[in-house]
Amino acid sequence: MRAYDAVAPEPEPPVSPAASAGFLVWHVSHRWQSLLAERLVPLALTPAQFVVLGAVSWLTRAPGGPAPIQREVAAQAGTDPMMTSQILRTLERRRLVQRAGDEADGRVFRVAVTPAGRELALRGVRVVHAADAEFFGALAARDAFVATLRDLARSAGVAESVVAVPPARSSAQTSRARKQGKERSR
User: Fold this and answer.
1) Dihedrals φ, ψ of 109, to 5°?
2) Which is more confidently placed, 46 or 164?
């Protein structure tokens, strides 16, 4: 008998829905998304629009690098490619992103964030960071929780570019980045 022919015993069902990790993740994620939707209203962004705009902004942060293609934006945002395309069209109409055909492949669109889009993404990051602190602030072991979520995301096949923690910046790098951001927004 081959190893994959063996049938694993079926796990016991949870004694209550509250003992099911998936059930709890479902409820918590809905509460989190509701909070984000509420907090992003003043920016006229839905959570999905914020995530896609943030992904484009993140992926285009290195000056002179190639603009990402829509599929890369979808992977970074964790959104369906068709939905991402629709959101990008909306963001493009609002002049927050620009899409252009790829020179090498006419079927591919490259996406760049506009200055207005970068500014809105930064404002959104501040709003979402505050909501994050409020929502997850009750956790005693927040860093351990985030590490567990990162491990779970990896095991679920989430792209490494999404779950990898960038190296810590020195205070000089942080100051330089802030100064460059202020100069760009002028």
Assistant:
1) -110, 135
2) 46
- Domain residue extents for the chain: 20-157+178-184
DSSP 63: T
Q: Which tokens belong to 46?
A: 């839905």
Q: Rounded CA gap, 166 and 35, in Å?
A: 27
Q: Average model confidence (pLDDT) for the chain? A: 85
Answer yes or no: pTM beyond 0.85: no
Contact criterion met (CB below 8 Å) for 21 and 15: no
The answer to whether 119 touches 186, Cβ cutoff 8 Å, is no
For 19-36, write each residue's pLDDT tens digit: 788 888 899 999 999 999
| Span 134-149, pLDDT tens digits | 999 888 898 898 888 8
In the block, tokens 């939905």 appear at 83
Closest residue by Cα to residue 115 from 78, 161, 63, 41: 63
Q: Determine contact, residues 47/26, Cβ cutoff 8 Å.
A: no
* Alpha carbon of residue 155 to chain centroid: 17
Domain 20-157+178-184 belongs to what topology? Arc Repressor Mutant, subunit A (1.10.10)
At 103 the pLDDT is 83
Count how many Cα atoms sit within 13 Å of the Cα of residue 116 in the half-sphere of its side chain: 9
Token representation of residue 32: 């989190």
